[in-house]
């Protein structure tokens, strides 16, 4: 529950107004809404130090509801967000008029923030291109960044709040089968992650190379398959018949080893042809 302002999940939970059930050391239970006002400062929230999180209560969705979450990062996979957004919108029954809109942003403040002013201006509006102008103007004023804000890239991050909302607008418009300009349709698409491929090459072994020489002879080590498939347990079994190399160095030129347990052989640098 550290509540990082660039978390991938926290903006989603905030826009969804998820309820958190906590219990204190004394056994007192209470329920908090993870919405506006939940985060008080950087990685601080309304949960007290004597409380722990017991459960998350996810609100029921409805037929007129659409939810989109987007993230901009430097890499496509396994990277922290520069700015991310979660858009939760509910329409009036059998219409495209906004009944409820909640926007949550990460990367724009010391905490994940909402945009209540922008949401309120969008209430009752039709889901069309005019809405983009209304919300964009409101967001530009509601989510400013100080020139000295941590993380830098001030203008870029401010522009991301607008472009990510526009991308979410296009995605929801496509779900609603609303008319989208031909040159903007691709903006609703997400990246398609292709299956990873790899190639392993081997150097040809010279005919004169001795059979005992391991150079250019790739051997699968004991943990290779488990490492490649995610099933590796990080502990090592040393078999009695196995031998291992260890580098030995000394700080004092006159120092010497009196004894060394399990010693098999000593190999000097020039023995290796170096």
From TrEMBL:
Report domain CO dehydrogenase flavoprotein C-terminal positions. Answer: 68-172
Question: Domain of life of the organism in this record?
Answer: Eukaryota
> Which Pfam families does the record cross-reference, listed alphabetically?
CO_deh_flav_C, FAD_binding_5
| InterPro entries the record matches | Ald_Oxase/xanthine_DH-like, CO_DH_flav_C, CO_DH_flav_C_dom_sf, FAD-bd_PCMH-like_sf, FAD-bd_PCMH_sub2, Mopterin_DH_FAD-bd
- Record-level Gene Ontology MF annotations: flavin adenine dinucleotide binding; iron ion binding; oxidoreductase activity
Name listed for the protein in its UniProt record: CO dehydrogenase flavoprotein C-terminal domain-containing protein
Question: What is the native source organism of this protein?
Answer: Phlebotomus papatasi (Sandfly)
């Amino acid at each position: 529950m550290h509540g990082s302002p660039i978390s991938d999940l926290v903006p989603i939970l905030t826009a969804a107004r998820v309820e958190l059930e906590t219990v204190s050391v004394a056994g007192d239970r209470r329920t908090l809404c993870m919405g506006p006002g939940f985060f008080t400062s950087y990685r601080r929230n309304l949960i007290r130090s004597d409380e722990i999180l017991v459960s998350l209560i996810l609100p029921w969705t409805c037929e007129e509801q659409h939810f989109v979450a987007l993230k901009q990062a430097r890499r496509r996979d396994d990277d922290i967000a520069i700015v991310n957004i979660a858009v939760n919108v509910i329409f009036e029954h059998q219409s495209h008029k906004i009944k409820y809109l909640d926007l949550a942003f990460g990367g724009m403040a010391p905490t994940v923030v909402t945009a209540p002013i922008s949401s309120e201006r969008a209430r009752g509006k039709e889901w069309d291109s005019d809405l983009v102008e209304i919300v964009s103007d409101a967001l530009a004023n509601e989510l400013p960044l100080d020139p000295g804000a941590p993380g830098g890239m001030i203008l870029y991050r401010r522009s991301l709040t607008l472009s990510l909302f526009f991308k979410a607008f296009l995605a929801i418009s496509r779900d609603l089968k609303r008319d989208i300009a031909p040159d903007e349709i691709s903006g609703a698409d997400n990246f398609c992650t292709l299956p990873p491929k790899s190639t392993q090459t081997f150097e040809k072994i010279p005919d004169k190379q001795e059979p005992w020489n391991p150079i250019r002879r790739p051997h699968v080590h004991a943990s290779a398959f488990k490492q490649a498939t995610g099933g590796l347990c990080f502990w090592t079994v040393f078999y009695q018949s196995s031998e291992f190399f260890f580098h030995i160095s000394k700080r004092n030129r006159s120092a010497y080893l009196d004894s060394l347990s399990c010693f098999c052989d000593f190999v000097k640098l020039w023995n290796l042809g170096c």
